[in-house]
Specification:
Helix content: 10-25%
CATH architecture of the largest domain: 3 Solenoid
Number of domains: 2
CATH topology of the largest domain: UDP N-Acetylglucosamine Acyltransferase, domain 1
Mean pLDDT: 93
Number of helices: 4
Low-confidence stretches: none
């Protein structure tokens, strides 16, 4: 992932990072680490993390020079990736991420915003009352922004987009023909905490939200930006009202998701997925393409392509109907 909006303060010597976060590895030869990324996108000179066998295939092929992992998982890493053994992989990953990106922890209101009337967009955007625009914002042609909406810093909006009233957007790339209805919150930090003795350590969120062409986001919906990777909504996908999409979720193309559905972090949906209202998708799951999930279902395991499921835990629709006659 190329980081668009957060300043990287690296590089750092690996031994400095080890000492700074309390890892107990033996000293390595002096070696600079440029960035921290996930297993899949990291390259040589990066540090990554590996905490679950769910990501075994990515771990085997990672290009990172260093990996924070456990004693039981280190053998799956390639010889080019040096393990940093941890008893709390996610906590140590969060602490190292904070070193590289110290400005990514908090999401305080954006002091850089100013009234759209005082910006270059005053003559190119059709806008309502009390619209505020932050720094590093791009807005394409033929766009509308409703009353009391705030486009905070680090946002790119394509052509022919409609932003409703009382919407807040930051740290997002929004493509063409996107509709975000009233009350949407896009690109704020995700919900990531790790216990650290008597306190909780917030995980830095250095990813962004990417919304592809021809997407509609319903009223009151929230889409969190990614932690190390990006949160992505695919082309032609429609979200109903009051939907929550957590950090790192990837939703494919042509999906239809009804109201009050919730996605926990890092789950992936294929294309042409339909989900009924008030369903819940647990984290780190893979939902295949052409899947249908009944309303009110609780999905707690992967679902293969072309499946129809319902219930809690979600099971094959025919079995659900048979058991609930």
């Amino acid at each position: 992932m190329s980081n668009f909006f957060f300043k990287n303060t690296g590089p750092y010597d690996i031994n400095y990072l080890i000492k700074a976060v309390g890892l107990k590895n033996l000293n390595y030869a002096e070696e600079k680490v440029i960035d921290i990324k996930d297993l899949n996108t990291s390259i040589k000179t990066d540090i990554t993390f590996f905490h679950s066998k769910k990501y075994l295939q990515f771990a085997k092929n990672t290009k990172a020079s260093f990996c924070i992992t456990t004693e039981s998982l280190k053998s799956f890493l390639p010889s080019t990736c040096k393990p940093l053994i941890s008893d709390n992989v996610l906590l140590h990953t969060a602490k190292i991420t904070k070193i590289f990106y110290p400005d990514s922890i908090n999401d305080d209101f954006d002091n850089s915003v100013e009234d759209i009337k005082n910006t270059k967009f005053k003559d190119t955007v059709n806008y309502g009352k009390n619209v505020l625009i932050g720094k590093n914002v791009k807005i394409g042609s033929n766009c509308l922004i409703g009353h009391n909406s705030i486009i905070e810093k680090n946002v790119s909006i394509g052509d022919n987009c409609s932003i409703g009233s009382n919407v807040i957007i930051r740290n997002s790339l929004i493509k063409n023909n996107v509709h975000i209805l009233d009350g949407g919150i896009i690109g704020k930090k995700g919900f990531g905490f790790f216990p650290d003795k008597n306190s909780n350590f917030r995980y830095p969120q250095i990813g962004i939200v990417i919304i592809e062409d021809n997407v509609e986001i319903g009223c009151g919906s929230t889409i969190d930006r990614g932690s190390l990777s990006n949160t992505i909504i695919g082309k032609n996908t429609y979200l109903d009202n009051q939907i929550h999409i957590a950090h790192n979720v990837k939703i494919g193309e042509n999906c239809i998701i009804a109201g009050q559905v919730g996605f926990a972090g890092s789950s992936t949906l294929g294309n042409n997925v339909m989900i009924g209202g008030q369903a819940g998708i647990s984290g780190h799951l893979k939902i295949g393409s052409n899947v249908q999930i009944g309303g009110g279902s609780g999905v707690i395991k992967n679902i293969p392509d072309n499946s129809k499921v319902m219930g809690y835990p979600a099971k094959d629709l025919k079995n659900f109907i048979r058991e609930n006659k």
